[in-house]
C-alpha cells in the first residue's frame, strides 16, 4: 500500500511540474488572447454562450465573456454601468431603449464600420432598420425581431361559420359578433384598454402618424378610438377584468377565443396547452387603410467606452449574418431580422410563422425619441380615458398632444453661463467661509467647551457613515429637485439645468400626481384605522384565556408579514380572478354578480387596501400582544373587585395602558401606508384610470423608468412634507390626550 502511495505522489509531482512548465511557456500566448464582454437579457442571456462558442471556433485567440442579466433589472443595470464607466463592449438592447442610450451619448455610431463591411443592411426588415437609425446614422444592428399577429381558435371560428380569418377591420368586427353568438359566455376578443402597442398598430393601419410634424394626426386618432370602443360598448371585449384573467386558461376555455400576441406565445401554447393543438392558428392582423404591426425585438449595440471596437464590430457582424440568424432561431426560437435567413426550412415551412413573416414587411418601430417611455405612458392614459368614456376621442387627442409637446419641450435645456459662474463661486465660497470661521472661533470655542477633542475621534466613523449614506444624499436630492436632471444629464452633468421651484409647481398641475396623492391619502385614511383596529382585536383574542392554541395563531397571523409581496400578489390575483376567483365564487353562491376587482376603478383601490391589511396586521398584532402581557394582573383584579365588567376593564385599564403602544403603532402604520408602492406596482400598475396610482409608484416611474430624476426628487420631498405633517399632528394629538385617560 505504501508503494502505491509513493508512486502516486511521484506521478502527481511530475504532472504538477509539467503543468507549471506549460503555464510558464504558454503565458505569453494566453496573455495575447483577446477578451470581449457581451451582455444579454432573459433567455437570450443563457443561450448566447452557444453562439459565442461558434464565434470562438472561427476566431482562435478570442474569448467571449457572456453575462446573463434578468429583464426586470436590465435597464437600471445598463444605466448604472454607463454612469460608472463599467459598460460591456457589446450589449443586447430593446428597440425602445435605443434612443435613451443614444441621448446619454453612451453607444457608438456604426456608419464608419458599415462603410467597409460586406453586411447588407437592406436585407433587414424596414422596422428593424428604423429602430437602429437616427438621422441617417446607425447606432446598432438588428439581432432578432418580433411582431404581433392574431391568435384564434379555429374550432370556434368554424362553429361561427368562418373557415378563414377576416382580412379587414369590418370583417373582423363581424367575425367577433359571430364568434360571440356561437359560444356560451365569455367574450370574442381579448383587447386591453391601455396597451399602447396594440393601439398604435390600429392607429398606423388607419393612416395615423406619430411625432411626424405634429404629435398626432387629427381624425385618424378619433376614428381608431371609435373602432376599438365599439368592441367594448357591444361587450365583444371586456372593459373591466380583461387584465386579471389568465390568458392561456381563458383561451383554452373559450372565454377569450382570440387575442393579439407575439411569437413567444407559440411555444407557450404548444407546451402548456397541448390539448389545443390543431384547434388554433395564427393570422395577420385585420388591415385598415393599410397593413401595419408593431416591430419589437432586440438589437446589438457597441458602447463608446469599449477599448476593443474592431473585435466588437466583428462579433456584431457575425451575429447579424443571415446564416447565423437562422442558426440562432434553431437555438432560441427568436425570429431573424434578416430576410434571407427566413429561407431556412425551419422558418419557411412552419405554417404558424407565415403570419409573422407577412407582418414583418410592414411592421413599424416606435419613433426614435429618447422620451418614448414617458410618451408611451401618456398614450396609455389617453386611450384608457377615451375607451372608458370619461372624455371624448377628440378631447383625448388634444390632451395627449399637449402632454407630448410638453414632454418634448422639457428635454434639452441649456444652463446660462452666468448661473454656472455663480454656482461655481458659491461652491467655492461656502467651504472657504466655513474654514475661515473655524480658524477664527473654533479653537477658542473648543478650549471653553467641557467636551474633550478625543471624543470626536470616536464619533468620527459613525458621523462619516451617516454623512456619506444619509446627510449628503438628502442634501443632493434636495438640490436635484430644483433641477431638470433627466436622461440627458445622467451621463453629462453639464446638461443639468437649475429650474428653481418649477418641478414643485409642475407637480400640482400634473393630473397623474394629483391622482396618486389622492389615492395615497385614501389608502392611509381607510387602511390605517382598519389595520390598527384589527390588530388590536386579534391581540385581545390571543391574550384572552378562552382561546386555545395561542402559539399557532400567533405564527399564523405573522406569516403574511414575512411572506414576500410577489408570493402574496400571486395568491390574491387568483382570489380576485374575475373568471374563477374565490371571491366571485362566493358572490355566485350568494346570488350576487361577479366583480372585476382589480379592473373596476371603484373596487381596485379597496381591493388593494384589503390585501395590504391582511398582509400587515400581524406585525402590529404581535406588538399589541407584547404590550397586553406587560399590563399587571393586579390592575384587573382590583377593578374586578369593584364590580367592573369586561367593557369597563378595556376602557379604564387596557386602553390607557396601551396608549403609548397604540401611538407607536398608529404613527409607524401611517408612515408605511403613506409610502405604499408594492401593491399597485405588482397588482395593477396604477390602473385602471390611475385609480390605484400612488405617489411612490409615480415617483418610481418618473425616476427609474423615464429618468426624470429632478421631477422625482421633488415628489420625494412633497411626500416627506406630507409624512412630517401627519407625524407632527399625531404627536400633538397624543399630548392633548395624555390627560384624558
How would you briefly describe this protein structure?
The protein is 60% helix and 8% strand. It is built from 33 helices and 13 strands. Strand 1, helix 2 (42-58) and strand 2 (62-69) form a beta-alpha-beta unit.
- The CATH H-level superfamily of the largest domain is MetI-like
Mean pLDDT: 86
Poorly predicted regions are 1-31
- CATH class call of the largest domain: Mainly Alpha
- Distance between the first and last residues' Cα: 87 Å
* Widest β-sheet, arrangement of strands: 2-1-3-12-6-13
How large is the count of helical segments? Answer: 33
Helix content: 55-70%
Taken from the alpha-carbon principal axes, the silhouette is: globular
Question: Largest sheet, described in full?
Answer: 6 strands, mixed
Gyration radius, in Å: 32 Å
Hey, roughly how much beta strand do the residues contain?
5-15%
CATH architecture identity of the largest domain:
Orthogonal Bundle
The number of domains is 4
Instruction: Say what the CATH topology of the largest domain is.
Output: MetI-like fold
Number of strands: 13
Amino acid at each position: 500500500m505504501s508503494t502505491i502511495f509513493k508512486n502516486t505522489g511521484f506521478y502527481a509531482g511530475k504532472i504538477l511540474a509539467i503543468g507549471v512548465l506549460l503555464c510558464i511557456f504558454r503565458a505569453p500566448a494566453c496573455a495575447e488572447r483577446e477578451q470581449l464582454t457581451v451582455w444579454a437579457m432573459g433567455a437570450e442571456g443563457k443561450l448566447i454562450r452557444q453562439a459565442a462558442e461558434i464565434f470562438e471556433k472561427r476566431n482562435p485567440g478570442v474569448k467571449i465573456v457572456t453575462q446573463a442579466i434578468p429583464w426586470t433589472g436590465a435597464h437600471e443595470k445598463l444605466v448604472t454601468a454607463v454612469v460608472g464607466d463599467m459598460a460591456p463592449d457589446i450589449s443586447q438592447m430593446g428597440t425602445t431603449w435605443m434612443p435613451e442610450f443614444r441621448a446619454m451619448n453612451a453607444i457608438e455610431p456604426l456608419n464608419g464600420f458599415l462603410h467597409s463591411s460586406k453586411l447588407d443592411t437592406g436585407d433587414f426588415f424596414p422596422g428593424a432598420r428604423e429602430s437602429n437609425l437616427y438621422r441617417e446614422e446607425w447606432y446598432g444592428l438588428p439581432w432578432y425581431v418580433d411582431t404581433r399577429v392574431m391568435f384564434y381558435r379555429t374550432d370556434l371560428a368554424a362553429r361561427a361559420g368562418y373557415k378563414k380569418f377576416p382580412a379587414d377591420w369590418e370583417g373582423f368586427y363581424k367575425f367577433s359578433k359571430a364568434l360571440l353568438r356561437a359560444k356560451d359566455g365569455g367574450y370574442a376578443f381579448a383587447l386591453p384598454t391601455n396597451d399602447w402597442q396594440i393601439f398604435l398598430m390600429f392607429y398606423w393601419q388607419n393612416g395615423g402618424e406619430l411625432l411626424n410634424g405634429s404629435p398626432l394626426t387629427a381624425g385618424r386618432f378619433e376614428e381608431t378610438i371609435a373602432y376599438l370602443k365599439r368592441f367594448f360598448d357591444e361587450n365583444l371585449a371586456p372593459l373591466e377584468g380583461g387584465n386579471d384573467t389568465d390568458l392561456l386558461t381563458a383561451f383554452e376555455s373559450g372565454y377569450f377565443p382570440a387575442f393579439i400576441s407575439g411569437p413567444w406565445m407559440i411555444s407557450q401554447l404548444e407546451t402548456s396547452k397541448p390539448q389545443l393543438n390543431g384547434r388554433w392558428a395564427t393570422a395577420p392582423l385585420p388591415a385598415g387603410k393599410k397593413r401595419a404591426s408593431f416591430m419589437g425585438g432586440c438589437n446589438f449595440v457597441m458602447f463608446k467606452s469599449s477599448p476593443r471596437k474592431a473585435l466588437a464590430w466583428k462579433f456584431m457582424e457575425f451575429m447579424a449574418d443571415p446564416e447565423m440568424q437562422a442558426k440562432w432561431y434553431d437555438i432560441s426560437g427568436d425570429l431573424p431580422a434578416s430576410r434571407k435567413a427566413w429561407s431556412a426550412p425551419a422558418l419557411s415551412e412552419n405554417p404558424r410563422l407565415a403570419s409573422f413573416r407577412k407582418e414583418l414587411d410592414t411592421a413599424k418601430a416606435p419613433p426614435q425619441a429618447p422620451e418614448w417611455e414617458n410618451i408611451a405612458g401618456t398614450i396609455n392614459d389617453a386611450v384608457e380615458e377615451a375607451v372608458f368614456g370619461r372624455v371624448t376621442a377628440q378631447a383625448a387627442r388634444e390632451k395627449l398632444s399637449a402632454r407630448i409637446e410638453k414632454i418634448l419641450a422639457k428635454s434639452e435645456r441649456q444652463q446660462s453661463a452666468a448661473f454656472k459662474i455663480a454656482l461655481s463661486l458659491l461652491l467655492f465660497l461656502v467651504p472657504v467661509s466655513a474654514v475661515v470661521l473655524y480658524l477664527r472661533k473654533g479653537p477658542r470655542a473648543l478650549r471653553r467647551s467641557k467636551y474633550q477633542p478625543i471624543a470626536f475621534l470616536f464619533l468620527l466613523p459613525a458621523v462619516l457613515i451617516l454623512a456619506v449614506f444619509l446627510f449628503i444624499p438628502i442634501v443632493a436630492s434636495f438640490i436635484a429637485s430644483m433641477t431638470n436632471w433627466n436622461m440627458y444629464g445622467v451621463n453629462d452633468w453639464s446638461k443639468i439645468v437649475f429650474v428653481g421651484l418649477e418641478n414643485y409647481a409642475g407637480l400640482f398641475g400634473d393630473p397623474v400626481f394629483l391622482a396618486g396623492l389622492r389615492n395615497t391619502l385614501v389608502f392611509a385614511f381607510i387602511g390605517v384605522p382598519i389595520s390598527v383596529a384589527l390588530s388590536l382585536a386579534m391581540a385581545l383574542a390571543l391574550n384572552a384565556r378562552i382561546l386555545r392554541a395561542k402559539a399557532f395563531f400567533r405564527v399564523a397571523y405573522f406569516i403574511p408579514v414575512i411572506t414576500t409581496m410577489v408570493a402574496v400578489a400571486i395568491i390574491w390575483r387568483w382570489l380576485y380572478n374575475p373568471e374563477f376567483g374565490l371571491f366571485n365564487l362566493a358572490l355566485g353562491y350568494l346570488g350576487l354578480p361577479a366583480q372585476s376587482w382589480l379592473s373596476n376603478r371603484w373596487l381596485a383601490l379597496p381591493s388593494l387596501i384589503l390585501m395590504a391589511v391582511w398582509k400587515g396586521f400581524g406585525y402590529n398584532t404581535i406588538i399589541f400582544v407584547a404590550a397586553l402581557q406587560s399590563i399587571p394582573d393586579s390592575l384587573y383584579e382590583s377593578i374586578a373587585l369593584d364590580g367592573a365588567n369586561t367593557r369597563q376593564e378595556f376602557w379604564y385599564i387596557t386602553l390607557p395602558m396601551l396608549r403609548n403602544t397604540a401611538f407607536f403603532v398608529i404613527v409607524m402604520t401611517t408612515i408605511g401606508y403613506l409610502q405604499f408602492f408594492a401593491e399597485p406596482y405588482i397588482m395593477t400598475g396604477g390602473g385602471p384610470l390611475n385609480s390605484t396610482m400612488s405617489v411612490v409608484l409615480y415617483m418610481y416611474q418618473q425616476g427609474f423608468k423615464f429618468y426624470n430624476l429632478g421631477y422625482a426628487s421633488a415628489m420625494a420631498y412633497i411626500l416627506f412634507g406630507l409624512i412630517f405633517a401627519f407625524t407632527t399632528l399625531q404627536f400633538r394629538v397624543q399630548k392633548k390626550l395624555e390627560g384624558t385617560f
